[in-house]
UniProtKB/TrEMBL annotation:
<protein>
    <recommendedName>
        <fullName>PepSY-like beta-lactamase-inhibitor</fullName>
    </recommendedName>
</protein>
<keyword id="KW-0732">Signal</keyword>
<feature type="signal peptide">
    <location>
        <begin position="1"/>
        <end position="20"/>
    </location>
</feature>
Length: 145
């Protein structure tokens, strides 16, 4: 189940466009939890689904997304980061194994206290999302042709 939730959240985070929900549809618990955890947040945009509530906001000049369950618990957070911020061994593996690809996006994702990175790479005919651990392990998370 955790893998399914992670896959759903990553898919939403990378390369998706969702319309912002009316804030009146955000539950009181989620709104209070958001305000308590991210008190300095500005420009909040909400998306409510049957499985989670997502808020995209700015904090200290950085765009962040947070995902909440219906109880107001944070499921995960994500933010764009730079490819050069990955573990050095991962950068080397990606440059070697995906030399014919271009890195198009790098996301830092934290779920239940565990941090991973997701790197979108693509060329003329293929697109992949790579999962990178804090230890520099690289695996294919998703393939799109």
């Amino acid at each position: 189940m955790k893998k399914f939730i992670l896959a759903t959240l990553i898919t939403v985070t990378i390369g998706s466009s969702v319309l912002a929900a009316d804030i009146s549809k955000v539950s009181f618990r989620v709104l209070n939890a958001f305000q308590a955890k991210f008190a300095d947040a500005t420009d909040a945009e909400w998306t409510v689904t049957a499985d989670y509530t997502k808020v995209r906001f700015t904090m200290e000049g950085e765009k962040i997304e947070a995902f909440f369950n219906s109880n107001g618990d944070v499921i995960g957070t994500s933010r764009k980061t730079e490819f050069k911020r990955l573990p050095l061994s991962a950068i080397q593996k990606i440059k070697k194994s995906y030399a014919k690809y271009q890195v198009t996006e790098t996301i830092e994702f934290e779920l239940s206290g565990e941090r991973k990175y997701y790197v979108s790479v693509e060329n003329e005919s293929d697109r992949k999302i790579l999962e990178v651990s804090l230890y520099g392990d690289v695996s294919v998370f998703d393939k799109n042709k």
